[in-house]
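note to self — DONT lose this again. spent like an hour looking for the file last time. sequence + predicted structure for the chain T wanted, 208 res
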Amino acid sequence: MKTRGPQVVLVRHGETVWSRSGQHTGRTDVPLLEDGRKMAGLLATPLEEWRFAEVWTSPLSRAAETCALAGFGDVAKRRPDLMEWDYGDYEGRTGDEIRAERPGWALWKDGVPNGETAAQVGARVDGVIADACAVNGDVLIFAHGHLLRVLAARWLGLPPERGCLFMLGTASISVLSLDGDGTQPVIVTWNDMTHLRNGGSHEGAPGA
């Protein structure tokens, strides 16, 4: 019987007022709502399935607090390269507000003025992926919606813009690994929110 290879477990932070309203939340340090803190606490039980060799978190409080409430605050390393996409002039604005000025606008194809490009976010997560692959064991990452979607695309060898294919709810759990031969990067599970069923949840904005 083949044993599974190391896994990279991705957790999007719990809900904030901006994720609930659909506002693009990049570098603004918006705290968790009370519902978001409850969601973070509900992550503890499903994450007990793993024994992590490394735990990494974005330093932004919504991710770091989610990490702590899930039970990993004492062991997590804060990594600035896990911060959310820098949305530049579109920080704090909803997609509908932006499209009222730029009809047909989409982050993935049009980008943002005075912020990061998809390629720049992709370069950041490439470094995270390289470090995760060098760890002898499973890795747990607490971060943000768009950042984690780009990470998933890059894990599969896709351009960062293809992160548009992967929706991600708040306080969700996703698992990346390699196939049975240990050669092909795969997604084992994606956007698992079953642990939130008894606690209530909102999917939140696609990136925050």
